[in-house]
Design brief:
The structure holds 2 protein chains of 2 kinds.
Chain A lengths: L8 E14 L4 E16 L4 E5 L6 H8 L7 E6 L13 H6 E4 L13 H12 L4 H14 L16 H13 L5 E5 L7 H18 L2 E6 L2 H7 L2 E6 L2 E7 H6 L4 H9 L39 H5 L5 E4 L2 E3 L5
Chain B lengths: L1 H5 L3 H18 L36 H37 L1 H16 L2 H12 L3 H27 L3 H8 L4 H37 L11 H9 L7 H28 L1 H9 L3
Helix pairs in contact in B: 2-3, 2-10, 3-4, 3-6, 3-8, 4-6, 5-6, 6-8, 7-8, 8-9, 8-10, 9-10
The chains are: A alpha/beta, B mainly alpha.
């Protein structure tokens, strides 16, 4: 299983800042630090779950990895390849090794294209195989993700949400990537369909040795699929560790809050919410010191002044908190 | 049937019928008239509608019906050239401005604004005055103004479409921008372009008629509608039907294209599309 010694993908100190411009002269009046110094690595065949609430920068991290938004700073490197962040355009060899699955199964497929052409596009773009081989590959990919190859001439709107997500997965697999960024791949689906897609992703991982960066706000889903988990808050990773460590003994108060707010299966175990302020600061005006201090029950003076660093506590378990 | 219900739209049907009738007249003009456009029948000057001259004759005894159906050829040819060219230019500019954004967008849209800033007819007159009359030159005069509309509409559509996940997916695959624009964005932007083109035919015919009316179109003896109308106004007091029929022809033709455009807009409306797309399976 996961081999931390030789990461497939390593991300160091990744930053994505967006300028806020305003007025007649489009003067920069501020900055959204959507991703502010994120580091992690993913090993072969490993799933890293990236969790956090809306707007914490988890999706932006995924988009930056794909080169869909420009990284302001940092390093993104695939095993045995150069750092891509400073390149003007991302080489195709890198694109082949990393692909993405989107959240919305409706906007992720071009409504005017047949499924055949959607799944074939990666092969066309990268010039893989002759026409006949591409046709055969599309059929193979469709059966791989559980679609009937004879549906290849249909349009996306003739499929259900779950089927459409399968089409998106087939497209991502066409280039035989090593790693797939799953940007909330099941959040838009019905619960019964979610399980099917998650099982499909797990099967594909076993079969093809894929690695996943699994971005989600749904803790249940993340617990189900991940080997390791990273918790993000306002553009930073505040805790990272094995799935077991994070879910059984979380160290960061924010992770605790997240876990406590996940619904329990048993109504008798209904949570009593402690008096944590749910006033979420925005990424434009991040609090000084520890970004979480405005909501943290443990906050003291040091938290308001000094930003804690991500420090290793136990084996592979790191946390950014002054008090843990 | 989904298709037949979708096309059961009164303005679409009416517009299509008018347009079709005019196109047939233009194409089969020689078979629809026993007279030549320059053929004078001096015994029947100002004849008024008769069995031989369906819409009457002018002061030289030239058959008005014949002049109008041959005039349709001129109008439709110029409209075809100008609509095709302005749709091509405008769509290209709009796609580039909307997709690339930044400086490309800024520069292209400011150029568009400059063309929009001129009063259309004055600009067209100036261009014909410089280039001289002729079918292509009149078409150019119309194109110079007409492309801006396509550019603005296509840019706006592109701005929306480029944020769609399927465009992002294509970018993530490393697709060339031209491929993205042609394969992913253009097919989804084609609806508004078709509507604009159809309305553009009406506008082009008006512009061409206006230029001819003012004497800047094709020079006589070309049987342009604008000139026929202008010529007819000389006899407005005693023989008003000449001008009235010529004017009505222009009006009905433009109305036809506008109805067609409105009908297409209804039929191709994204909400309409999504309503039928919403019924899955």
């Amino acid at each position: 299983m996961p081999d931390a010694a030789a990461p497939l993908l390593s991300v160091e100190n990744l930053k994505v800042h967006f300028a806020i411009r305003s007025g007649v002269f489009q003067r920069q009046v501020g900055e959204v630090k959507a991703v502010d110094g994120v580091s992690f690595s993913i090993g072969p065949g490993e799933t890293l779950g990236l969790v956090g609430e809306s707007g914490c920068g988890k999706s932006t991290t995924g988009l930056a990895l794909m080169g869909l938004v420009k990284a302001t700073d940092g390093h993104i490197a695939m095993q045995g390849a150069e750092d891509v962040t400073q390149m003007r355009s991302i080489p195709r060899s890198y694109r082949r090794r990393m692909q993405i699955i989107f959240q919305d199964p409706f906007s992720s497929l071009n409504p005017r294209q047949r499924v055949r052409d959607i799944i074939r596009a990666p092969l066309d773009i990268h010039g893989i195989g002759a026409t006949e081989e591409r046709r055969a590959e599309v059929a193979k990919l469709m059966s791989l993700v559980g679609l009937r190859p004879d549906q290849a001439d249909n349009f996306p709107h003739q499929f259900s949400g779950g089927q459409r997500q399968r089409i998106g997965i087939a497209r991502a697999l066409a280039l035989k990537p090593d790693i797939i960024v799953c940007d909330e791949p099941v959040s838009a689906l019905d619960v019964s369909v979610q399980a099917q897609i998650l099982n499909l992703l797990a099967d594909l991982q076993k079969e093809l040795g894929l690695s996943y960066l699994f971005i989600s706000h749904d803790l249940g889903v993340v617990e189900h699929v991940s080997h390791r988990v990273a918790v993000m808050y306002l553009g930073k990773i505040v805790e990272t560790g094995s799935k077991e460590a994070i879910f059984t003994k979380p160290l960061h108060p924010y992770s605790e809050l997240l876990l406590r707010s996940a619904p329990a299966h048993d109504p008798r175990q209904r949570h009593k919410f402690s008096a944590v302020s749910d006033d979420i600061p925005s990424a434009t005006r991040k609090p000084a010191g520890c970004a979480f201090h405005t909501r943290c029950p443990l906050a003291t003076d040091i938290c308001r002044q000094i930003e804690p660093r991500l420090e290793r506590k136990a084996d592979g378990h790191s946390v950014a908190c002054h008090h843990r | 049937m989904r298709l037949s219900r979708r096309f059961r739209n009164i303005s679409l049907i009416l517009g299509m019928s008018i347009v079709l009738a005019i196109v047939i007249c233009a194409v089969f003009a020689p078979y629809l008239s026993a007279h030549g456009i320059e053929q004078m029948d001096m015994r029947n000057r100002f004849s008024g509608p008769t069995l031989t001259h369906w819409l009457g004759t002018d002061n030289f005894g030239r058959d008005l019906w014949t002049r109008l159906i041959y005039g349709a050829r001129v109008s439709l040819t110029i409209a075809c050239i100008s609509v095709t060219a302005s749709a091509l230019i405008g769509t290209t500019v709009g796609l580039a401005a909307g997709y690339f954004g930044g400086w490309t967008d800024l520069i292209l849209m400011r150029i568009t604004d400059i063309f929009l800033g001129f009063p259309a007819i004055v600009l067209a007159l100036a261009i014909v005055a410089v280039l001289g009359p002729g079918i292509v030159n009149v078409a150019i005069a119309i194109i110079v103004v007409a492309w801006t509309e396509y550019a603005r509409v296509v840019r706006a559509t592109t701005l929306v479409l480029r944020e769609q996940n399927y465009v992002q997916a294509a970018r993530a695959l490393g697709a060339h921008p031209v491929r993205i624009l042609v394969k992913e964005i253009l097919p989804n932007a084609i609806g508004p372009i078709i509507v604009l083109a159809s309305l553009g035919f009406g506008t082009a015919i008006i512009s061409e008629s206006a230029l001819s009316f003012l004497g800047f179109g094709l020079p006589p003896p070309a049987p342009t509608w604008g000139w026929t109308l202008a010529y007819g106004t000389r006899f407005m007091r005693d023989e008003p039907w000449l001008a009235i029929i010529a004017g009505a022809t222009i009006m009905v033709t433009v109305l036809g294209f506008n109805l067609l455009g409105d009908g297409l807009r209804d039929v191709l409306d994204p909400r309409h599309l999504s309503r039928s797309a919403g019924k899955k399976k």
